[in-house]
Amino acid sequence: MPDDFGNNHREIMAHALALVDLHTLPGPGSVIGHGSKVEDIHRYCGFAMESTGQIERAIQTWERLVDILQHQHLARRSRSVIARSSNMGPGHYPEEEEKSRIADAYDSLGLARMRNGNLNDAASKHEQCLEIRRAIYRPSNLHPDIALSLNNLGLLYQALGKLNEALDKHEQSLEFYRAIHGPSEPHAAIATSLSNLGSVYQELGDTDEALEKYERSLEIYRVIHGHEKPHSNIARLLNNIADVWYSRGNFGRATELFERSVKMLRSVHGAGLAHPEIAITLSNLGLVYQAQGELDKALKTYEQCLKMYRAMHGHDWPHSDIAGSLMNIGLVCYDLKELARATESFEQCLEMLRTVHGRNSQHPNIRAVLSNLADVYEDQGKREKALAMHEQITAIDKTSAGSSSNPKSQN
């Protein structure tokens, strides 16, 4: 089944690209007569490209969809005005519905840009999305779409390191959800907002507040799904709580919770199934083993993670998940002094990241693997190669204000 899953991803991608080529028209104005068909095709293709890791192509598709929807909206509004002024009928058209679809397209574009590391541009798209949604749902603005936009902005501000702004947006989102669903109602959206707040508090170093938010979120999910019933939401919160204990240096407690999370996820998704949630938790478990100096265990866990991602995405298909596992394997091999294997893993990781993010991308993970390659080349006595890596790092630092300052980190 895993190999078939990878093949299916490639088939989906080929089909999506064929659809885009088939329905690519000279400009946004030429799609008016095609109605929702072209819009649906672009949405399908955008999601298909993202699912196969082709983020640049997905961004282009979402940008085209935004242009199409905006052009359609302006054209229909002009027709409506003309119809009313010429007494040709009411000239009514579903303006709010169209604006909502434009907002949805901005939302998808922002999420894709966030995945590609273009965080400032992603924030701009989500702010445009929020502005449109607030205009649609005024005066109360009490709508789940607005709460979702606030949540997405919170995630973006956190990724940008604007933690106080992230906290504000997540608190607003939580307030909206409680007003919509009831302050005491156990609802998944409220649990998600609490979990996101926990993540920001954790990054701020307030691990007590982070634990409190995570545990409240966990309790809501247990009420929703059942205290003893395995569920991915519960497993995800166990993973988050384990991460707090990991950051506190309590590796024993972290290991216990990560292992419980993996066991629960395998119960939910199937013991032999390749699933992203299982892979992510395995990666976290590997980090704990690595931190405790259990390098053989860490390597074995990372190898399981890599195998799982390759089964999901295709063995040689370029994807950031696969690149992340290669990075982690390279780091463990470096610590084990297996320099040849570390070099191979880092080089494969670099090539894959450049395929995913673009050859000239300044993505922080590209900077990270360049730094790791410089270290391993130095240890192998390959000074010219190490210097070439440092030159590329300098070029990234000059052009990217948000470059990572921790070259040994990989999530």
Question: What's this, in brief?
Answer:
The protein is mostly helical and 411 residues long. It has helices at 2-23, 36-51, 55-85, 95-115, 119-137, 144-159, 163-181, 188-203, 207-225, 232-247, 251-269, 276-291, 295-313, 320-335, 339-357, 364-379, 383-399.
List keywords for this structure.
411 residues, disordered C terminus, disordered N terminus, mainly alpha, Serine Threonine Protein Phosphatase 5, Tetratricopeptide repeat, 0% strand, globular
Blueprint (SSEs and pairs):
Blueprint: H1 2-23, H2 36-51, H3 55-85, H4 95-115, H5 119-137, H6 144-159, H7 163-181, H8 188-203, H9 207-225, H10 232-247, H11 251-269, H12 276-291, H13 295-313, H14 320-335, H15 339-357, H16 364-379, H17 383-399
Helix pairs in contact: 1-2, 1-13, 2-3, 3-4, 4-5, 5-6, 6-7, 7-8, 8-9, 9-10, 10-11, 10-12, 11-12, 12-13, 13-14, 14-15, 15-16, 16-17
Helix-strand sequence: HHHHHHHHHHHHHHHHH
Structural class: mainly alpha
Radius of gyration: 24 Å
* Tally of individual domains: 3
Q: Kindly, what is the distance between the CA atoms of the first and last residues, rounded to a whole number of angstroms?
A: 27 Å
Q: What does this entry look like structurally?
A:
This protein has 411 residues and is mostly helical. The protein is built from 17 helices and no strands. It has 3 domains: 139 residues, no CATH class; 88 residues, Tetratricopeptide repeat domain (Serine Threonine Protein Phosphatase 5, Tetratricopeptide repeat); 78 residues, Serine Threonine Protein Phosphatase 5, Tetratricopeptide repeat (Alpha Horseshoe), CATH 1.25.40. It is globular, with a radius of gyration of 24 Å. The N terminus and C terminus are likely disordered.
